[in-house]
Amino acid sequence: MKIAFKLAFRNLIGAGLRTWLNVIVLSFSFVVIIWAKGILVGWDHQAKNDMEQWEIGNGQFWHNQYDPYDAFTISDSHAPIPNEFKPEIEKGEMVPMLFAQGTIYPKGRMQPAMIKGIPASQILLKIPTHKLDTVTDAIPAIIGEVMARSSHLEKGSRVVLRWRDSKGTFDATEIEIVDIFSTTVPTIDVAQVWINLETMQEKLLLPEQATLFSFANVEENRPAVGDFKLKTKKELTAEIDAMIKTKSKGQSVFYFILLLLAMLAIFDTQILSIFRRQKEIGTYVALGYTRQQVVTLFTVEGAMHAVLAAALAAVYGIPFFIWQARVGFTVPMDTSEFGMAIAPTMYPIYSVGLILSTTLIVLLTTSVVSYWPARRIAKMNPTEALRGKIQ
Amino acid sequence: MENSAIIQINQLIKRFPMGKGEFTALKGINLNFGTGEFAGLIGPSGSGKTTLLNIIGSLDMPTEGEAVVLGKPISKLSAKESAKLRKESLGFIFQSYNLLQVHTVFENVEFPLLLLDYTTSERKKMVMDALEWVGLTDKVKSKPPQLSGGECQRVAIARAMVKKPSLVLADEPTANLDAANSHNILQTMQNLNRELKTTFIFATHDEKVIGYLKRKIFLKDGLVDHEEWINQ
Fold first, then answer.
1. Which CATH architecture has domain B35-61+88-229?
2. Distance between CA A316 and CA A309 in Å, rounded?
3. Is the pLDDT of residue A388 over 80?
């Protein structure tokens, strides 16, 4: 086997341009696959990180009735803040939020919105709630950029907000947009209006009540408290995982095509080699190689394309990966309305596992497509191969 | 025969399929070769000389009869045993040199040693010795496309001789060479035959080669027509 490697290396280097063309194509596959996978990992990481910082902290407690996908549950999803949570809230390690459905009327148009009450003093989440302390004769409210665009509201805009209190009575008042924040997390932006929790509790006639709590505590398996059940970070980010998984499957098709092109080049080279190098094959046999050893030599030779490609990919791929990790990849379109946490610029993350697994897959695939045509050698008659007579 | 027999051929028949029928290339050959012979199978194209050489070299199998080479019955050898015989005891020289084109002269000559368990330093010494025999020590780094036909054939001789095999089989070794180069390589082989007592068997119809042979075996239509021994 050692000899096969030695000879294969000599043969490949000796073949010159033919080898390097294959190696360049294959190295390109390496770099693109690792980069694209790195982008997905980076996206996953960024999306979860942003969700954690902007919305969920290290987990949430939800009211038993609360189902974000069922609008009819919202009006009943509230309960008094349990005493057990109060020490954490006072320390700023837990943020209570109260939700209600409402309607805004920007420029006379009716637009449904989820009204969310959050303490202005909270610092656990990155939502700039301190702006809710702005002194104005209307209710100060903050919204995200996507909401601002869809409702044509801007900083300083005033708009009528209507809601139904806990008794079922409709009420309305004017809110003033005191700040517009930029976030990659759509669930706190799209169709959301944020106001001070106390104002919200007062308007809904639900003093000291909340729909859910985000908390900083990293402890897992916290028990349910009163009407509130635990939602772990893993559960809350499961949708992102599912989305990444779907994206990953889509990307696999792309990898497959890319690998197919590279493998086609290697397969072609191998087929060509076996016909063009008949005399050489016969010579190997005459000098003492068994046919199986010649098959091994040709397989190793083909598979070694992947080794050289990995080396070449390292030469230009590593600087490219480092540069990409630093400047990121800017998605060439507006991603704010994709409905998922996707930053305009994504920073790829590469792991040793990712690089090793990609290398292994490419190496195995190359070995298989190299072995396939090489099997024909085993059927060759060495005396005819020596004279290059096989058609 | 100069010495004890290293090749014994008994009633050797070789048939090849041809269309719906068969072509009989060897029709019952009986021959013995001894150690240190410088012999040639002589005959026109189709007389069966290359077929016989291939069977002696365990590259082909007899259809009937037997060829015992260095004590090994060719028809009974497995692929692995045949390869072992070629690797350890046989050297081949071909009409079109059959050098590995992308390898240097050194690497070409080193190849048979790679298959045997020699150390790097042993291999280096043996390759340089072999290249010295053929007068090519100044071409170690050249590749076959950079060499003349005569030089290529001398590399092939060095490759065949580097492991000091018991038997060298040369199939039309001068067919692609001019007269000067032909004499040059024949003298080289003659010297190696004398110095190392290696048995050389040629398949040829080249008069230049025939002039150097000590034993001439004339084949005709797959049979030994007659033999001539030259006493020197």
1. 3-Layer(aba) Sandwich (3.40)
2. 11
3. no
